[in-house]
Amino acid sequence: MAPYKEDEVNVNSVTKIGDTAKPHCTSNVHLNLHVSKVVVHPLVLLSVVDHFNRVSKTQNVKRVVGVLLGSLKPDRTLDIANSFAVPFDEDERDKKTWFLDMDYLESMYGMFHKVAARERIVGWYHTGPKLCQNDIVINEQLKRFTCNPVLVVIQAEPKDLGLPTEAYVEVQEVHDDGTPPIKTFEHVPSEIGAEEAEEVGVEHLLRDIKDQTAGTLSQRITDQLMGLRGLHGQLLDLQCYLHEVAQGKLPINHAVIYYIQEVLNLLPDVTSPQFVEAHNVQTNDQLMCVYMGSLVRTVIALHNLIDNKLSLQKSEKDKEKIEGTGKKDDNKEEKKENKELKDSKEGNKEKEKDITPHSCVMRCVVTELEDTNIVIGMRCMEFMKLFHGRLLQKEELFARKAVSIGAFIYALSKKKPMPRGQVGTPDLKNPDADKVRPEIKKACEKFMLSDDDLIKVSKIMEDEISRGLRNEPSCLKMLPSFVRAVPNGTERGDFLALDLGGTNFRVLLIKLKGDVAEMTGKVYRIPEETMKGAGTVLFDHIGECLADFLGEHDLKDSKGLPLGFTFSFPVQQEDLTTGKLISWTKGFNAKGVEGQDVVQFLRDACNRRKDISIDVVALLNDTVGTLMACAFKDNSCQIGVILGTGTNACYMEKLSNCPKFKKFGFDKDKYPKEMIINMEWGAFGDNGCINFLFTEFDRDVDKASINVGKHLFEKMISGMYLGELVRLVLVKLAKDKMLFDGDYEAISKPDCFPTKFVSDIEEQKGLGDFRRTLQILQQIGINKISDSDCLHVAYVCEVISTRAAYLTAAGISCILSRMQKPFVTVGVDGSVYRFHPKFGKILDAKINDLLPKNLDYQLMLSEDGSGRGAALVAAVADRIKKEHS
């Protein structure tokens, strides 16, 4: 759910609004709203009705939920032109218990964004027919994608004539009696609007079919037919041009080809079976050529890298030999050279024996890497008959080693066959940065870290890691996870996952079939009285929900289903299946659990029911789950990092490097001699080892926190604090008369500038476009805002975001350097990494700068580490247990 701190939400006030709000009612609040009118296009209405009809046929639901896409016009008119459905479920008896599939929403929006980049998420819809109690809370979730989401209630089954839409925006009600403000909905006018093509379709559908002369459809179609004839003629001209280029009569002009491709992308699809089949055959041939060309280019790049490495080593050895024998007589030198020449010839013969026919044909076919992939592929096709059998023999090898090949191709996908370290850091800074005033830059210079600073941080972290693993005083706890391996693709069976970390918890079922995973789950709510009651009551409630889930999936008769338990609270683990709760957080205060084994509490709750049988085989935190979820896709994943509200990291460490864990007897068992170590790196620096990094603003953030002097590294890079750091800098600049004409009252309230504002501002393209920054500053309540103010606010956001990414890069490069593995995948999850538009790119580039050149890596976004990862830990534990039973 949303990772940032919000104001109080009064969901009960929504019912009152739903009863009192009238269509197109107006109020003086409208003058301050960011939207003056909402225009809904017919396509949206049709999509919503279709969504409702499809779902209502298979499920007993009263409303469906989806996302609205469109754009905000300069006159504050919100134009909603598109939409898509999102899986949604809620408890009819308790409206506060609901589930909205945010992962599905993110992936669908990503696909929509590729097709129509100008359309952005502007709000959401449901089919009502009225506002519901949980609408405010759902609206908060949509703020991940847009600052001020609009809610449109669309009646899929209207009972009366009239507009089927009612639009609302969120506002805050401030009371004079000093009580906290509450969030509620304000009605805004809405109407149905359409483009010309939509008007034609709607007119044709609604006109009286008995009057064939009504409407202008006939004339419009005639005009369009004439236009299509003209288009057909132009396409014939393009066809002639392309034929002449293909025959070599005209030179290739890449710019023209790109424009032609853009034009062809706008043409409608042709569904004739004969055309589709012929097109697919020709396209597949071309794609085969491109694929072969790309593969050949990659292999040749590898050959060049190896040859360059061998040549470099040979030249270094020759240089050492020459320097060591420079004083010997000429006869000995001559004998030595003859011997080296002989050895070199013998070495070349051995090398030639090792070269497979693949490399021979590749070197014969391709002499210049400057050729395009299609040209290289066509040349390879000419040799296809000769080496067809050899290629078929290698097909199985490629299939089996798909993961390794993917990692290998990624490592070589940097355009030129050069070492990773020579790839320059991309320019990710705001193009308006040169316009920033010198005094603003000077005020922010303490946040700017050099590579020397970051290397120093990496060395300090390495020292703290070593101390922690030796059980010496260290700010890094280096806790054992007792997870000894990652998925290898042989895991099979049904596995449960229980994810407990807040007021809502999840139960999931994952069916593993090698490298394929099918996952289903359900969200359950924990009542507040249960959270603060007796511990047995809390776990009995969890057991009841677990039984409900197993009953829905006909699994109550299954015996000993393996379960992974993600428990996102501080625990002290003694093995993989036990963990004593150190202290409750996040509003929980169940009595009698602290200091006790939470896994045993869960087992006892299930045993008391006597109608379910589970086997808790793993207890883990979300960081380990992130690593495991990525390792399922890529078994080279050895590091997991969380960059969200908080931050943490874990990695796979050799047990021989961990004297701290000798008491567990790992050296005597038969299991793998490595383990995922939970670093708890949010506490890095708590012992003062990185005090040289702290600014006055970092100290102010620490003083205002609930854990003063603790988790200092986390307070410099996590989503809970980045927005507050920006706010403190803006207040200081405003007090010094550098911003907002010295007016800082509106930003003087703590936490009024959440990290999501930083992400929104960083998404701007610069070059004078500060509309998003202006909207945010106006929303906060700042009145006097100039373009210069917007420029400098964006600059502060950039500087603090960059420092956070740089410090994260220093930590990851430290772990990579410590592991000393040629290639490692780093699994990353968390709201900062997911939603900050530049954080991931800056992080990747800086790791590339800091990491030794003989090591390589890739960053991978984790999918549902706390859920999927828990089940995968259970699957791996079950596999290892069976292998060594």
TrEMBL record:
It catalyses: a D-hexose + ATP = a D-hexose 6-phosphate + ADP + H(+); D-glucose + ATP = D-glucose 6-phosphate + ADP + H(+); D-mannose + ATP = D-mannose 6-phosphate + ADP + H(+); D-fructose + ATP = D-fructose 6-phosphate + ADP + H(+). Residues 38-174 form the MPN domain. Residues 316-353 are annotated as: Disordered. The keyword Cytoplasm does not apply. GO terms for molecular function: ATP binding; D-glucose binding; fructokinase activity; glucokinase activity; metallopeptidase activity. GO terms for biological process: glucose metabolic process; glycolytic process; intracellular glucose homeostasis. It is an enzyme of class 2 (transferase). Keywords: ATP-binding, Glycolysis, Kinase, Nucleotide-binding, Proteasome, Transferase. PROSITE patterns: HEXOKINASE_1 (PS00378), HEXOKINASE_2 (PS51748), MPN (PS50249). Pathway: Carbohydrate metabolism; hexose metabolism; Carbohydrate degradation; glycolysis; D-glyceraldehyde 3-phosphate and glycerone phosphate from D-glucose: step 1/4. Its EC number is 2.7.1.1. GO terms for cellular component: cytosol; mitochondrion; proteasome regulatory particle. Signal peptide: none annotated. Belongs to the hexokinase family. Belongs to the peptidase M67A family. Catalyzes the phosphorylation of various hexoses to hexose 6-phosphate. PANTHER family: HEXOKINASE (PTHR19443), HEXOKINASE TYPE 1-RELATED (PTHR19443:SF16). This is 26S proteasome non-ATPase regulatory subunit 7.
